[in-house]
Amino acid sequence: MSVRWMPAQPNALITKYEILLTAHKKYAVGGHPRSEQLETKKRVDGNTVSARVTGLVPNTEYLLQVGATSSVRGRLSSPLVVTTKPAAPAKVYQPVMPVHSVAGTQSFAALLYQASTRNGPIR
Q1: 3 and 53 in contact (C-beta within 8 Å)?
Q2: N or C end of the chain, less CB within 10 A?
Q3: Residues 3, 19 contacting (CB under 8 angstroms)
Q4: What is the pLDDT of residues 33-66, one digit of tens each?
Q5: What is the DSSP letter of 102?
Q6: DSSP letters of 24-78?
Q7: Between the CA of residue 41 and those of 6, 13, 21, 69, what are the distances in Å?
Q8: What is the rounded CA–CA span in Å between residue 33 and residue 26?
Q9: What is the DSSP letter of 88?
Q10: Percent helix, strand, coil in the chain (nearest 5)?
Q11: CA 66 from centroid of its chain's CA atoms
Q12: pTM of this structure
């Protein structure tokens, strides 16, 4: 994910910026709901106003914050909600499309399509 921000207007020289992304990933184990906090931090030089953050979980909502540091640690910005893109499927499966002829004719066929959940959500 690429992140860009406006440079801080501090009273002292900015030595670095910190980009913080946090998420709460919800899932189930054996039918029991679970949740896990994900946190990704990246630090860049103080004369930089953009960064590329990697290692994020696909199709996940994160809170994004950026903070500037001078001789003392600064405050983080207000959080901004961002969502990562879904991952490409590891393998694309052919849909199952059985064709049945109706009333013995060769000119008409009924198609039954059952959506696969193996490739992820259809949007």
Answers
A1: yes
A2: C
A3: yes
A4: 888 899 999 999 999 999 999 999 888 899 999 9
A5: S
A6: EEEEEETTEEEEEEEEEEEEEETT--EEE---PPTT-EEEEEEEEESSSEEEEPP
A7: 19, 21, 6, 14
A8: 7
A9: P
A10: 0, 50, 50
A11: 18
A12: 0.66
